[in-house]
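ugh finaly. both done.
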Amino acid sequence: MEPRLWTPPLRDLADPAASWGHDFIDFCALIGWPLDPWQRWLAVHLGELFPDGSPRYRKAIILVARQNGKTIFTRLLILYWMFVERVPAILGTSTDRGAAKRSWVKVVEMANAVELLREALDRRHTVLQIGEEDFWNRYGSHYRFAAPTRRAGRGDTLDRGLLDELREHKNRDTWDAVVPAMNAVRDALLVCISNEGDAESIVLHEEHDAAQTFIETGEGDPRTFLAAWSSPTGADPEDVEALAQANPGLSHRVQLDALLGQARAAKAAGGETLARFRIEIMCQRVDLLEAAIRPEDWRACGVRREDFPDLAQHRRQAALCYDVAQDCSHATLAVAVTVDGLTYVEIVASWDGYEARKQLRADLPGWVDRIKPRKVVWFPGGPAAAVADSFTGKYLRNVLIEPIRAEDVVRACMGMEEQAAAGHLRHAHDPLLDLHVRQTQQLTQGDGWRFARRGQAPIDATYAAAGAIHAARTIRRLGPVA
C-alpha cells in the first residue's frame, strides 16, 4: 500500500481534518467507484492540509507501474475537483492529444452514469468541436484537455492541472506552459502521474530528483509531494517483493503469474527487452534502452588509480583524442596507452560552458607538450570540426594532429565496446567518463554502429575515450622511453 519513497507528512493524517483525501475517498465510494488501498493512501497523503485548512502541496509527482489503476484515480480526482471542490478551470494532458481526449470522454461518461452527478449537469454540458472541447457543470467548473505542447494552458488561469504520463515529456515546453498558468491561484494543484521513463524523460527525472532531494536534505520546494511505487535499484525481475513495491495493485488489478512470466522472458532476452520490463513493470530508472557499452562490462574494467601505469614511461604509445558535445557546451580530452595487451584510458582535461571550444583550443598545445603523445586525433563530421580547423594537418609540439578516418569511426566506437566486453580495457572510474558512458547509446550505421549524439545528454567524453583507444591500439610499437 505504501510507496517505497514518499514525502513525510507534517501532522497525523488519520485525523479527517488533516487531509481533503478523506473527503475524496468518501466521494468515490458514494458514486460507486471505491478506491483501492494504495489509492486511499495516496489520496490522504496528497490531500494534506496545514492546520489553518490550506493545502500543503501545489505540485505532486506520483510514480506507479502500469495497469495498477492510476488512470482511474486521476479521472475520479477530476470529478471531485468539478463536483465537490467546484474549481473553475481544470486542464488535463496525456501522452498525446488522442489519449487526452479519450480520458476526457471517459470522465464525461462517468459523470453521466452517476445520478448524483448527472443532476448537476445541464442538458448541454459538452462542446465537441475539435480544438474547443469542454465539459462543465452547473457549478461553473470546466474540464478541458490539450496536447502536451508549449501551447497547453497558455492564455488561461488554471486551478487544477493533470499531466498524465509525465515520462513522455522530453523537454519542459508543456511544463513551462501549464505551471505559470497556475501562479495566480492560491490553492492551485498540479498532479503529475506516470510510470518510469528512459533517459529522455527529462522533466520526470528532474522533478522527481528535486522532490527526493527535499525529502533527504530539506533543501528545495517544500510544497512538492512525491510518492514513488518502485522496485529497489538492482532488484531481480523475479523478486516478488520487489514487484509488489512497484505494483500496489498486485493480485487485485495485476496478476502475479503474468508479471513473473514476463520477467522470465525479459531476463532471457536481456538488452532492451529487459530494460523495458524494468521501466514499465518495475518502475525502475534505466539510463538507456540500448546502451553502447554494457554497464556491467564497464564496471568490470574499472581499477584503482594506483594501478594505472605511469604515462610518462609509455608516451611513445600514448594517443590523445579531443571531442566536443553536440551543443558545444562541453569538451573533453582523453589519453590512452596500450601496455601488455591492456589499453588504459583516462580523461586528461574537460571544459564546460559556452567557451568550452575556445578553452580547448587554447589549452591543447600545453597538454600536448606535457604528455608528448605519439598521436593527437579527433572525429571528423562531428562538433569537434570547428576546433580541428585550427590544428588539422599541422604539427603541434612535433605531433601531427590528424582526423580519424571516416571509415574508422565505426571501428573506434565498436572497438571500445569490444575491448570493454573482452576485459582488455582499464579505466579509473573518472566521474565524467562514467557518466558519459552511461549516457551513450548505439546508432546503427551500415552493418555496424557508432555512438549516438542525440538528446540533451553530452557524450563527448565517450567519443574522446574511443578515439584515444583506437589510436593507441593502432600505433606501431616502439621501445620504452629511455
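ok and the 2nd:
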Amino acid sequence: MSRLILASASPRRLDLLARIGVVPAAVDPADLDESPLKAERPPAHAARLAAAKAALVAARHPDSFILGADTVVGAGIRILPKAEDEATARKCLTLLSGRRHRVHSAVTLIAPDGSARHRLSTSIVAFKVLTAAEIDAYLAGGEWHGKAGGYAIQGQAEAYVRFLSGSHSGVVGLPLFETRALLAAAGLLLG
C-alpha cells in the first residue's frame, strides 16, 4: 500500500487526523506563496491553496498519496489574513466582533497515479460582540499567532462563539468528514 504524506506543518492537522485513526507516514510541508489572487473569493482561495500544496509535495513523493489542506476565514468577500502580529489579530477580531463569518476549509488528496480528489467544507461562525477588554485578554494569550482570521476556535476563542453551523474540525483546520470521505474513496480507510 502507498504511503500517506501530509503536506502541512500544522500540528492541529496531525491531531485531527489522529482522531480518525490516521497517522501519516511523513509530514512534508509545502512552502508556497499564499497571497490571494486578484478578485479571488475565499472558497476559491482555500481550494486553490489546498490543491497547490498537495501538487507541490506530490512532485517530491510520486509514489505516495498526498493530503493537502488550507483554511481561509472570509468576511463577506474579504479574505482575512493569518495573523502574524498583534495589530493584524486585533483588526481581525474587531471586524469579526458581533458578526457572522465563513470559514472555508479545503482538502485535496493526490494519488500516486496523479489523480486528484477535492473537497470543500464551509462553516458559519458568529462571535458575540467582543469588548475591548476581551480582545486585549485574548491577544495577551498569544494563541492567535499564525491563525487565519486571528483566532483559534479550539482555544480560548471558543468561549466567544455564539453560533456555529458546519464543521468544527474544519474551522480548526481540517474538516474530518470530508477528509475521511476522500481517504475512504481512495481505499486508505475502511468504509
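summary for the 2nd one i guess: Residues 4-185 form a domain with the Maf protein fold (CATH 3.90.950.10).
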